[in-house]
Amino acid sequence: IASFSSNGPEISFTAPGVGIRSTYKNQGYETLSGTSAASAYVSASVAMVLTQPAGLYDANKDGRWNVSEIKQKLIDCTIDLGGTGYDSQYGYGVVYVPKILAK
User: Fold this and answer.
1) 101: alpha, beta or left, given left = phi > 0 and alpha = psi -120 to 50?
2) Integer Cα distance of 68 and 49 in angstroms
3) How far apart are CA 58 and CA 60, in angstroms?
4) What is the pTM of this model?
5) In the beta sheet, which residues pair with residue 22?
């Protein structure tokens, strides 16, 4: 966990946010750290969920993803960190993209 990481009951997921190689202005690349790097990782994970049918996660049987269904899918596709299950430092864990694509 980086020294600048948030923690507390509002944390749902952990994402890489230190030393992330990313695109940068003027068609370049830079290594960045912070919530800007981590939030992009989680946002992309949600986008990957939305490309798939809701299937077994479709709790209300409307054929579309809703917020709670997306969250449950992400929970099921994490690697648990810290204490077993949810904790206020890591949330449910780090979102593991290969699991999203495999389910």
Assistant:
1) alpha
2) 12
3) 6
4) 0.85
5) 30
Say how far apart CA 13 and CA 40 lie, in whole Å: 13
Residue 94's contacts (CB-CB under 8 Å, 6 or more residues apart) are 13, 14, 15, 16, 78, 79, 81
What is the signed CA dihedral for 90, 96, 101, 103, rounded to 10 degrees?
A: -60
Residues 6+ apart with CB under 8 A from 65: 49, 50, 54, 57, 58
**DSSP line for the chain:** --TT---STT---B---SSEEEEETTTEEEEE-SHHHHHHHHHHHHHHHHTS--GGG-TT-SSS--HHHHHHHHHHTEE--SSSS-BTTTBT-EE-HHHHHH-
Q: Express each pLDDT in 40-92 by its tens digit.
A: 899 999 999 999 999 999 999 999 999 999 999 999 999 999 989 999 999 99
Identify the CA nearest to 56 among candidates 42, 73, 77.
73
